[in-house]
C-alpha cells in the first residue's frame, strides 16, 4: 500500500501549523498522523498482500488478515458483532465473489454500493461494517476511496447532518481546509478515531 511520502507528510504538518485559524481539527489531525496513521496502513497492507479469497473472507468476518500480528482477531469496529451475523455476511459475499472481484481498479463507490445493497439484508450488518468490509476488499483489488469521505455512526464531520452518508472530498476540503493534506480514507479514519472529541466540541444537525 502506497503511503504518503514522509517528506510530504512533514510539509503537510508544517502547513497545518501555519493555518491562520488552526483550531481544534488541526490539532487532532496532527495527533492522528502521529499515533494512528501507521495502524491504518498496516491494516491495508495486510489485506493487499494476501489472496483475494482470503481478503474477502477476513474482511467480511471482521478480523485482521492472515499473516498479520493480529491475524484472526476481531478488528476494533467489529468486536460487538455477533458471530452469526458475520458468518452470514461471509457466506453472502463469497456467493458473489466473482462479481466483487470484477470491481478491481474501479471507483470505490461501485464496490461500496454493491456491498451496501446486501448489507441491509443481513441482521447486524450496518453502515460501519459495510464500509470497513469494502475498504479492506478495496485494498486487495485496488479500489480505495478517492472522491468521497464516507460518514456514518463512527465518523462525522462538524456541523454535518446526521442523515448524510458521505461528503465529496473536494467539498470537505472547501469547508475544512485542515483536511487538505489527507486523502478520503485517511479522513474517514481520523473522524472515526476522534469521534468523541469532535462530537463534544462541535454541534451536529439532525
Tags for this model:
3% strand; mainly alpha; 206 residues; two-stranded antiparallel ribbon
Shape: globular
Task: Give me the Rg, rounded.
Answer: 17 Å
Distance between the termini: 37 Å
Main pleated sheet: 2 strands, antiparallel
Distinct helical segment count: 11
- Please tell me the total number of domains: 1
Structure description:
- With 206 residues, the chain is mostly helical.
- The chain has helices at residues 6-17, 23-35, 37-48, 52-61, 83-94, 97-101, 108-119, 127-141, 169-175, 184-193, 195-201; strands spanning 148-150, 166-168.
- Strands 1-2 form a two-stranded antiparallel sheet.
- Helix 4 packs antiparallel against helix 5.
- It starts with 5 loop residues before the first helix and ends in a 5-residue tail after the last helix.
- Mean pLDDT is 86; it is low at 6-22.
SSE inventory with pairings:
Elements: H1 6-17, H2 23-35, H3 37-48, H4 52-61, H5 83-94, H6 97-101, H7 108-119, H8 127-141, E1 148-150, E2 166-168, H9 169-175, H10 184-193, H11 195-201
Antiparallel strand pairs: 1-2
Helix pairs in contact: 3-8, 4-5, 4-8, 7-8
Q: Brief overview, please?
A:
With 206 residues, the chain is mainly α. Helix content is 56%, strand content 3%.
Amino acid at each position: 500500500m502506497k503511503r504518503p511520502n514522509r517528506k510530504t507528510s512533514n510539509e503537510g504538518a508544517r502547513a497545518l501549523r501555519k493555518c491562520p485559524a488552526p483550531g481544534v481539527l488541526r490539532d487532532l489531525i496532527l495527533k492522528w498522523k502521529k499515533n494512528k496513521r501507521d495502524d491504518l496502513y498496516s491494516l491495508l497492507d495486510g489485506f493487499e498482500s494476501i489472496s483475494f479469497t482470503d481478503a474477502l473472507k477476513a474482511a467480511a468476518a471482521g478480523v485482521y488478515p492472515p499473516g498479520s500480528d493480529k491475524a484472526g482477531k476481531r478488528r476494533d469496529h467489529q468486536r460487538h458483532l455477533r458471530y452469526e451475523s458475520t458468518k452470514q455476511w461471509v457466506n453472502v459475499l463469497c456467493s458473489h465473489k466473482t462479481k466483487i472481484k470484477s470491481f478491481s481498479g474501479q471507483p470505490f463507490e461501485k464496490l461500496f454500493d454493491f456491498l451496501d445493497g446486501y448489507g441491509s439484508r443481513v441482521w447486524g450488518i450496518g453502515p460501519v461494517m459495510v464500509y470497513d468490509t469494502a475498504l479492506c476488499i478495496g485494498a486487495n483489488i485496488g479500489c480505495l476511496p478517492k472522491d468521497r469521505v464516507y460518514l456514518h455512526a463512527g465518523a462525522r464531520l462538524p456541523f454535518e447532518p446526521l442523515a448524510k452518508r458521505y461528503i465529496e472530498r473536494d467539498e470537505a476540503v472547501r469547508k475544512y481546509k485542515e483536511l487538505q493534506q489527507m486523502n478520503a480514507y485517511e479522513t474517514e479514519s481520523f473522524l472515526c478515531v476522534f469521534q468523541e472529541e469532535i462530537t463534544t466540541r462541535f454541534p451536529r444537525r439532525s
